[in-house]
Each structure stands twice: as structure tokens, then as C-alpha cells.
Amino acid sequence: MSDAVRQSAVDPVGTPAGEALLDQALLGGTARDWVALLKPRVMSLVVFSGAAGLLVAPVPLNPVLAVAVIISIAAGSGASGAINMWYDRDIDAIMRRTARRPIPAGRISPDGALIFGIGLALLSVVMMWFASNLLAAGILALSILFYVFIYTMWLKRRTPQNIVIGGAAGAFPPIIGWAAATGSISALPLLMFALIFFWTPPHFWSLALFASEDYERAGVPMMPVAKGARRTRWEILVYTAFLLPISVAPWYMGLAGRLYLAASLGLSLAFLWYAVAVVRDRQDASGVSLTRDAPAKAAFKYSLIYLFALLGAMVIDHWIG
Questions:
Q1: Less CB within 10 Å around the terminal CB: N or C of the chain?
Q2: Sign of dihedral through CA atoms 32, 36, 41, 47?
Q3: Angle ∠(247,251,267) on CA atoms, nearest 5
């Protein structure tokens, strides 16, 4: 525990000493640094998938309340990112990809980031409760706690399955959006959850293949570090193959129409083609790429397009249908 946090237990925030401590923790960093603390790229995907769950729900939500729900999901995602950066500041400082983040670069204090993250998390859950219902607020709280305690603090540094299990945190938003509109959970948001859950490993392991040196330097047991590059490539292919039947399932179950079917087949087969290219990448005897993991980089970029396009097709199909 830091000296600042110990002192905060003695000096309540309402006292002059406590207020000075809070000011010291929160001052520093530009607006851009505080936004970076929220992991905006991750947030954009979380917000989009949450909005997709909201838009395909059979019960329309008041537009003002719908905006409040989306803001709550964004705030919850940002809070998770801020607390993640607070906890991972030691390994972020070691990895080239993350060394310039606000905390390891010294632009924002760790205590300030933690206070900001916790405050934003509480605000997001309360706002969701007032804007929609207790079920949606409870699932949002669960997703934040899962990401912080299960993925960040428990799994990430202990097992190469960290992304597989921890990926559930990023798969909750469609369920949150649906629950906010309906007050219940149904088959379609659960299928959307499964889609994102199985999408996360090939998406993240493609990144881990060409960032494996960073993870090895930091001692994080990502799949390429713990099991090797060759095993990782085959895992990417297996999980991508699972996406094909999962993506088609909404149509098969009568929950989506032909437009979505065409999009899901085309997008999933293209993703599978990228995964095959990752496996067929020229490698040395240890499985290390001889092409600087160009296929893995291409698969990573396509995986982002895949999920946005697939969820977008689901929304369009719903409204047209």
C-alpha cells in the first residue's frame, strides 16, 4: 500500500489534510492523458457491442435513457481500463508497447488513477441503475469486477488461459444493453456473448504473436510465451473455426434474417482464411515467424473489422426485418 493511501486512511477527504492528499493524487496529466487512461480503443468496441445489444432488443428504450445507458457502459469500460493500468503499471513500464502510458511515463500518479477508476466505476453502475434497471446495473458491476479481479489481478500473470477466461468481461456489453431495454436476458444476447467470448482469443493472440518479446520481458504468460508460437497459431485457427457456427446460430434459431446470414458466413469464412494464413506463416524450427508475423498482424486488424461488421449487420438486419 502506498504512503498516500495509508495517509488517506488517517485523514478523511473532508479534512484539509485529506483534501490536499486528493488534490495531489488527481493533479497532473493533460486531458489527453486522462482519456488514455480509459483505454478508448477498447472502450469503442465495448460501447458498440453494448449498443448492438440495446438496438436488437424487442423493447425500444426512450432515446434519452438509451444515451444514458451507453454512457454508463462507456464509463464502466473506462473505469476498468483505469484500474487495470493502475495495477499493471509495473509491467507496463517494462513493455515497449505500453511504456508511454500515462502512469509508467509519470504523467498521472498511481493513486490518482485508482481514485479516478473507482469513482468512475461507482458512477457508471449508479447511472445505469437510474437509467434502466437493477439487472443491467448488476451485470455492469459484474463485468467491471470480473475484469479487475478475475482477469487483471488473478489470471493475467498466472496462466496462458488468461485471455480465454478473462475474455468474458468484454463479452458482457450486449447482455447489458439487452437487459437495459427489456429487464431480462434472452437467447440472442447470450449468443452475442458467446460470439465475443470466442472472438477474443484469436483477436488477442494474433497481437501476442508479434508482441511476445514484450510479454516475455514482463513475465506475463501469454500463450506464445508459455506454450510457444506454433501452439498459439493452431489455437487461433481452432477458436476462429468455432466462430463460424456460433455466428450463424442466430439465423439458425430464427433470431436473425438472411441479410445477417450472408454477412456472418462471408465475414467468418474470411476470418478463417486469415487464421489459416497465420498457421501457414513461414516459421523456423521453434515456430517463430520468418516474416515478422505479417499474417498475424493482418489477422489482428481484420478481427477488429470482423466484430464491428458482424454486430453492425445484426443491427441492420433487425431493423430491416
A1: N
A2: negative
A3: 35
Sequence ranges of the domains in the chain: 35-160+171-183, 186-321
Q: What is the mean pLDDT of the chain?
A: 91
Q: Record the cell numbers describing residue 107, joined without a space.
A: 504523467
Contact 242, 211 (CB under 8 A): no
CA distances from 106 to 24, 28, 86, 89, 152 (A): 14, 9, 12, 10, 21
CATH class of 186-321: mainly alpha
8 A C-beta contact, residue 160 and residue 222: yes
**Which triple of cell numbers denotes residue 259?**
441479410
- Select the CATH number that applies to the domain covering 35-160+171-183 from these four: 3.40.309.10, 3.40.630.30, 2.60.20.10, 1.10.357.140: 1.10.357.140
pTM, two decimal places: 0.89
User: Residue 5: pLDDT above 70?
Assistant: no
* Cβ neighbour number for residue 294 with a 10 Å cutoff: 15
User: pLDDT tens-digit profile of 76-115?
Assistant: 999 999 999 999 999 999 999 899 999 999 999 999 999 9
Higher pLDDT residue, 4 or 300?
300
pLDDT value of position 27: 59
Q: Which residue is listed with cell 472502450?
A: 43
Which residue has 479487475 as its cell numbers? 148
